[in-house]
C-alpha cells in the first residue's frame, strides 16, 4: 500500500533478509576453513574447499565475505639463498630447463636447502619435492650444512618412493649437491643429475617456492626456542598439512596426497 519493497521494510527494522542469512551461515563455514588452513588460505582456496563441501557460491562472494570479516592470508617474505658453490666439484648440466611439470610420479624431483632461525642457533632444512604432485618426498633437518643433510633427505625419498631408473633429480650447484658422495648416491640408484645454471634462481623455482610457502605460512610466525621445537613444527607442517591437506592451485586445488590418489585410481587409457 505504501509502495515500499519487502527488503527495504526488513532493512528498516534491522531484520536480515534471505541473502544475509545465507551469508551468515557461509561466514561460519568460511571461518572454520580459514582456521583449518592455519590462516593461510585466500579466497581461491577457501572457495575450492567450499565447493568440495557441497556449497554453491561464487568466488567474488567468498572474497567479499572474507574481506568484510577481516580474513586475509598471511603475508609473504623474501626468500634468501643459503648454499654456496664449490668450483672444485663436478657440476651437471641443466636438463630440467625450467620444465616444472611431470606426467607421472617419480619422473622429476627437485631439491633445495634453507635455514631457520632459533634462539639456540640455525636449523638447516633440506627437502626433495616431486614435481608431479608437488609432494615433499624427502625431508631432513640438522644444525649443520654438511653433505649428510642432503644425503638424509634423498635417502628418505628413495626409500619412500622406490623410483625406477631414469628419475631426474634437479638442484642448484651448492657444494652439498656437487660433492662426490651425493653424486655417487644418484648413480647407484639410477638417478639422472640436473643442476641449475649459475646464479639463476628461476631454474629451481618450484623448490624455492616451497620454502617461500613454508616460511610464509609457518616459520615467520613462530619464535622457536630451540632446534627441537623448530623441527617438530616444520615436520608437522610438511607431513600433516602441506602434503595431505593444503590445496594447491597448480593441482586444481587438490592436496598432493589427493592428487596422487586420484592419479592412481584413474584407469589407463
In which order are the strands of the major sheet placed?
Answer: 3-2-1-4-5
Helix vs. strand class: alpha/beta
Strand content: 5-15%
Radius of gyration: 23 Å
Straight-line N-to-C gap: 66 Å
Low-confidence stretches: none
pLDDT averaged residue by residue:
88
Order of helices and strands: HHHHEEEHEHHEHHH
Specify the helix fraction band.
Answer: 40-55%
Shape: elongated
Walk me through what this model shows:
The chain is α/β, with parallel strands linked by helices. It is 42% helix and 14% strand. The chain has 10 helices and 5 strands. A 5-stranded mixed β-sheet has the order 3-2-1-4-5, sandwiched between helices. Strand 2 (121-130) and strand 3 (135-142) form a beta hairpin. It is elongated. The mean pLDDT is 88.
Write the layout of secondary structure elements.
Layout: H1 6-12, H2 18-36, H3 43-52, H4 59-69, E1 108-118, E2 121-130, E3 135-142, H5 148-161, E4 168-171, H6 175-178, H7 180-188, E5 192-195, H8 205-217, H9 227-242, H10 256-265
Helix pairs in contact: 2-4, 3-4
